[in-house]
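Open question from group meeting: does this chain pack into something compact, or does most of it stay loose? Before anyone orders reagents, we agreed to write out a predicted structure and look at it together. Recording both the input and the output here so the notebook holds the full record.
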Amino acid sequence: MADFITIEDDKYFPATTLCIPEVYIEYLEGVVIPHGLIQDRIERMVQYILRDFGCSTPVVALCVLKGGARFFSDLTRSVSGINGTFTPWFPLALDFINVKSYKNDKSTGNVEVTGAKDLRNLAGKNVLVVEDLIDTGTSMQQLLPLIQEYKPKMVKVASLLVKRTPDCAYRPDYIGFEVPNKFIVGYGIDYNEHFREINHICVINENGKKKFAVK
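Structure tokens returned:
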């Protein structure tokens, strides 16, 4: 496992000091990771990924939707930009899978996976699973055996964030940031389909959880 950046507990930037849609500011505890730091960290993660994947074997980057879409876009764009510059070039294909395990701010414990019927193209290839956030690790522990059924040559996982939860049973191969055990939103990560469009990674407050809760 490559290195990662640890974000300390309760060390936030005030939401009013960065560019955030006005409608969301009162519902955030603060900004945990500004957008610029996210981008720089992604570039470093890509260097580790190319070191491990740089060979002639085709690679399929598999995005875990919906939260991982923005991270996936930035990561694969960076891979394509320097693919072959300091490691052997490899063909890169993109694919998508939808995994859902949350209602409001709680993990349901039941992981719903859709889109897997189109993954026969993973056979014999190297697979990079791209996830936005590892919380308990339950979703990934259920997803990876499903991927292995298609007999890929190698499977590795890149997650932008890993929470410091006492019951986390899985650690990915590539980690951007280890973050506090709070409900994270922004940079594509939602709370009941809200907050995705924020450029930064933030923590939602209790008022925000109540305001945007679903029954």
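Observations to bring back to the group:
The chain has a mean pLDDT of 90.
The first strand starts at residue 5 and ends at 6.
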